[in-house]
Amino acid sequence: MQCNATRSSNASLTIILSYNKFYIPFGSFATATNILCVLVVLSKKRMREKYGAFGVLSFGDMLNALAMVLLGSIRNQQINDNSFVSLSSFACFGRPWPYLFIVGGQLPAFVLVVMAGERVIAVFKPIAYRTYATPKTRVIANIICVALSILSLLIGILFSYLNREVCTSPTCTTINSTGRLYGTFNNCLIVPLPFFALILNIIAYVGAKRLSVSTNMERELKKVLVSLVLAALAVVLSVVPNILLWGAGVYWNVPNLGYMYIGFCCNSAVDLFAFFFLKEDFRNRLLSILSYGYLKRYFNLHEETETNVKRNMVQNTSIKPPARSRATETVG
What is the value of pTM for the model shown? Predict the structure, then answer.
């Protein structure tokens, strides 16, 4: 469908350009930090097994941050070329960032719930956790998260096609490019899920804190703390802006709401810092990669080489002396 080439006013274009000045650098920084996280997770088999979910989380946040960079740079180019005009919803979905926003918003939300659920099981059902929380199970859970986000993207494409006769703003937000029905569905995923993950993490943290008095829960308490910090930051930096953006122009009018997208960039960048300060083996592996092994050689950075299960197996295995033969006993 061809829409009338309705151009934005100079005042609105000036505001959009001011937004883009922040989108590009913040998005670039967040993209770089998540690339580092993914590289650290992929660098060793032990890291992939231990931090696989975190790697998927960082990948999703990387897509979200990359969408901000593309959004800012392409909008700048369109404004400079005088091509920033109204277009159909389906043509709007042809821009690269709606795809990335959908997957980059929903994938981290799914992964946060998986991480929180794993911590709850580890605290309250430790035997079941040790039995079923295998590397294979974690891989299956990560694949399900990716599959769900891709399925949702396909649904978004369908809704965008159904709204192909609707002309919309050239800003091409998720709601503009897919319609308000799917936009509401998208928010129903990326808003409640981090809240749910936060509640699960609080339950796990309180349980681990209580059980640490009588059982060996110190290590699990640290794991819960990392997951809790990630979920809490997601609620503050992503959920709240998404709520405000969803109802903008329909239920409320908030000035300078475009700056809320910067919160998405900040949320996408916190993964690296959270794990750097709270996970010693992750921090040491990152420093080793960035320094090409120099810091590891000269500062003796410790990297874990055994999982807890293997370590416990070694500690619980008694070393028995070799049995003496009857002939030896007779000679003695």
Answer: 0.85
